[in-house]
Amino acid sequence: VQVVESGGGLVQPGGSLRLSCAASGFTFSRWTSSWYRQAPGKERELVARISSAGDDTNYADPVKGRFTVSRDNAKNTVYLQMNSLKPEDTAVYYCNVYAYWGQGTQVTVSS
Protein backbone atom coordinates (compact mmCIF):
# COMPACT_ATOMS: atom_id res chain seq x y z
CA VAL A 1 0.00 0.00 0.00
CA GLN A 2 1.27 3.43 -0.92
CA VAL A 3 -0.08 6.95 -0.66
CA VAL A 4 2.31 9.51 -2.10
CA GLU A 5 1.82 13.28 -2.19
CA SER A 6 3.59 15.60 -4.58
CA GLY A 7 3.40 19.16 -5.84
CA GLY A 8 4.42 21.15 -2.81
CA GLY A 9 6.95 23.96 -2.90
CA LEU A 10 7.63 27.62 -2.29
CA VAL A 11 5.16 30.13 -3.71
CA GLN A 12 4.55 33.83 -3.26
CA PRO A 13 1.38 35.12 -1.61
CA GLY A 14 -1.44 35.15 -4.11
CA GLY A 15 0.08 32.30 -6.07
CA SER A 16 -1.20 28.81 -6.81
CA LEU A 17 -0.10 25.23 -6.35
CA ARG A 18 -1.65 21.90 -7.26
CA LEU A 19 -1.03 18.97 -4.96
CA SER A 20 -1.45 15.39 -6.10
CA CYS A 21 -1.88 12.22 -4.09
CA ALA A 22 -1.35 8.91 -5.85
CA ALA A 23 -2.60 5.74 -4.17
CA SER A 24 -1.82 2.12 -4.89
CA GLY A 25 -2.24 -1.30 -3.35
CA PHE A 26 -5.88 -0.97 -2.36
CA THR A 27 -9.26 -0.08 -3.86
CA PHE A 28 -8.90 3.69 -3.92
CA SER A 29 -12.28 4.33 -5.52
CA ARG A 30 -14.19 2.90 -2.57
CA TRP A 31 -13.06 5.49 -0.10
CA THR A 32 -13.49 9.11 0.80
CA SER A 33 -10.22 11.00 0.42
CA SER A 34 -9.07 13.91 2.51
CA TRP A 35 -6.35 16.52 2.65
CA TYR A 36 -5.02 17.64 6.01
CA ARG A 37 -2.31 20.10 6.94
CA GLN A 38 -0.08 20.70 9.90
CA ALA A 39 1.71 23.96 10.53
CA PRO A 40 4.68 24.20 12.94
CA GLY A 41 3.49 24.10 16.53
CA LYS A 42 -0.10 23.38 15.55
CA GLU A 43 -2.30 20.32 15.40
CA ARG A 44 -3.09 18.59 12.13
CA GLU A 45 -6.32 19.96 10.68
CA LEU A 46 -8.71 18.89 7.97
CA VAL A 47 -8.51 21.02 4.84
CA ALA A 48 -10.82 19.32 2.34
CA ARG A 49 -12.65 16.07 1.78
CA ILE A 50 -14.15 14.40 -1.27
CA SER A 51 -16.51 11.45 -1.46
CA SER A 52 -15.55 8.21 -3.13
CA ALA A 53 -17.43 9.09 -6.32
CA GLY A 54 -16.27 12.69 -6.26
CA ASP A 55 -19.78 14.10 -6.09
CA ASP A 56 -19.59 15.57 -2.62
CA THR A 57 -16.93 17.85 -1.22
CA ASN A 58 -16.44 19.92 1.88
CA TYR A 59 -13.85 22.40 3.01
CA ALA A 60 -12.49 24.01 6.12
CA ASP A 61 -13.64 27.59 6.48
CA PRO A 62 -10.16 29.15 6.00
CA VAL A 63 -9.82 27.65 2.51
CA LYS A 64 -13.37 27.90 1.17
CA GLY A 65 -13.46 29.66 -2.17
CA ARG A 66 -9.69 29.29 -2.66
CA PHE A 67 -9.04 25.53 -2.65
CA THR A 68 -10.67 22.85 -4.77
CA VAL A 69 -10.44 19.11 -4.14
CA SER A 70 -10.99 16.66 -6.98
CA ARG A 71 -10.21 13.06 -7.85
CA ASP A 72 -9.64 10.78 -10.79
CA ASN A 73 -10.53 7.24 -9.80
CA ALA A 74 -9.17 5.88 -13.07
CA LYS A 75 -5.76 7.18 -12.01
CA ASN A 76 -6.17 6.45 -8.28
CA THR A 77 -5.31 10.07 -7.62
CA VAL A 78 -6.78 12.92 -5.60
CA TYR A 79 -5.84 16.55 -6.17
CA LEU A 80 -5.89 19.79 -4.23
CA GLN A 81 -5.86 22.96 -6.30
CA MET A 82 -4.80 25.86 -4.09
CA ASN A 83 -5.30 29.40 -5.33
CA SER A 84 -4.83 32.81 -3.73
CA LEU A 85 -2.38 31.32 -1.29
CA LYS A 86 -1.64 33.12 1.95
CA PRO A 87 1.30 32.87 4.35
CA GLU A 88 -1.00 31.17 6.85
CA ASP A 89 -1.44 28.31 4.37
CA THR A 90 2.17 27.34 5.04
CA ALA A 91 2.18 23.78 6.36
CA VAL A 92 2.94 20.19 5.57
CA TYR A 93 0.00 18.83 3.59
CA TYR A 94 -1.03 15.21 4.03
CA CYS A 95 -3.31 12.97 2.02
CA ASN A 96 -5.53 10.44 3.78
CA VAL A 97 -7.46 7.64 2.14
CA TYR A 98 -9.21 5.11 4.34
CA ALA A 99 -6.61 4.15 6.98
CA TYR A 100 -3.63 5.23 4.91
CA TRP A 101 -1.58 8.40 5.10
CA GLY A 102 1.08 9.84 2.86
CA GLN A 103 4.37 11.21 4.06
CA GLY A 104 3.35 14.81 3.46
CA THR A 105 4.48 17.57 1.14
CA GLN A 106 5.70 20.96 2.31
CA VAL A 107 3.90 24.08 1.13
CA THR A 108 5.54 27.40 1.95
CA VAL A 109 3.89 30.70 1.09
CA SER A 110 6.32 33.55 1.42
CA SER A 111 7.62 36.56 -0.43
> Helix segment count?
0
Helix content: under 10%
What value does the average pLDDT take? 97
- What is the 3D form? globular
Poorly predicted sequence stretches spanning 5 or more consecutive residues: none
- N-to-C CA distance: 37 Å
Write the SSE topology.
Elements: E1 2-6, E2 9-11, E3 17-24, E4 33-38, E5 45-50, E6 57-59, E7 67-72, E8 77-82, E9 91-97, E10 100-101, E11 105-109
Parallel strand pairs: 2-11
Antiparallel strand pairs: 1-3, 3-8, 4-5, 4-9, 5-6, 7-8, 9-10, 9-11
What features would you highlight for this structure?
111 residues; mainly beta; seven-stranded mixed β-sheet; four-stranded antiparallel β-sheet; 0% helix; 51% strand
Please give a structural write-up.
With 111 residues, the protein is mostly beta strands. It has no helices and eleven strands. Strand 9 and strand 10 form a beta hairpin. The radius of gyration is 13 Å and the shape is globular. The mean pLDDT is 97.
